[in-house]
Amino acid sequence: MTTVRRVDLRDEEDFARFHDAYAACYDRPFDQPWGAPEKRVNLTDDDYGRHVLLAAVVDEQTVGGGYVSLPTQDNLDSAYVEVFVRSTHRRRGVGTELLDALADVARREGRTLLRAEALWGVDESGGAGSSFATARGFAPDILDAIRELALPVAEVPAPVLQPGDRLVAWRTCPEQWIDQYAHLRHVLLSEAPSGEDGLENEFWDAERVRHEERSWNDQGRIAQTAAAVAPDGRLVGHTQLVFAADGVEAYQWDTLVLPEHRGRGLGLALKRHAMREAADLLRERRRISTWNAASNTHMIAVNEALGYRQTAWAAEYVRRL
């Protein structure tokens, strides 16, 4: 018999059992688990979101788990869910019990839309996660392509800029840029390709930028940011390279150039600049992973010019409650 119960983040042993089950379920190169300190910080309530963690227990063993994340400053209709089950206990209804329990939490919180993701290898026609989501009433909303850049690379060319443009970089955002940088983070979702159930822009201000930096520090992560400055002195684009405390992987996260400044080669220049600025961190890594909407042909072309090659697909799913 399966018992689904709440996980107490404050209890070291309870969270350790939860994380052990989680880590055992993410063993593909394109879908690696977060370390325990990273995941614990990521799932801790703060001013921007709340989280409920559940564990599935059989004969006193944690055989699976999941969580629901609830934004509190934006996208108040949405709840993000993730479910994982050890391979020894799949196809026994454990995942369904967890998902139903998480959906009940979202419903009680007044959310009307569940959001989830499923990944599969580039040579596969689909995966167990996508089959599970579809069988439980989720519909695909947008398809993402996962690409990887093998490291080390021989040399990263210097960025090429148009007259008047310049690049800056930081690992802690300078005060002079923080408000403009928060604006770039705020408008990202509306400027990125989205499905029919697209997200509204997230709430970002200077304090949230500092909160993110503190969270990265608590996780043992380092983020290398590069930003583009237009001739009028405004920030008009940015990109992030994020490094966990250990492991072989780095992550290319957000990249944005404001619409009126596109076509000037800033996307490629930003990514090259970030890699050059993070050369000391990249020496210890063996690959950089990144996601793009499959429809985002421009950014995909930028990544392929850098040497990225596709390794997997990711589908973003939605289900009405």
UniProtKB/TrEMBL annotation:
UniProt cross-references to Gene3D superfamilies, sorted A to Z: 3.40.630.30
Q: Which UniProt keywords apply?
A: Acyltransferase, Transferase
- Name any one Pfam family assigned in the record: Acetyltransf_1
State the source organism's domain of life.
Answer: Bacteria
Q: Which SUPFAM superfamilies match?
A: Acyl-CoA N-acyltransferases (Nat) (SSF55729)
Please state every residue range assigned to the domain named N-acetyltransferase.
Answer: 2-159, 182-321
CDD domains, from UniProt? NAT_SF
Segments forming a coiled coil:
none
Q: Key word Membrane present in the record?
A: no
The record lists the membrane-crossing segments as none
Protein name in the entry: GNAT family N-acetyltransferase
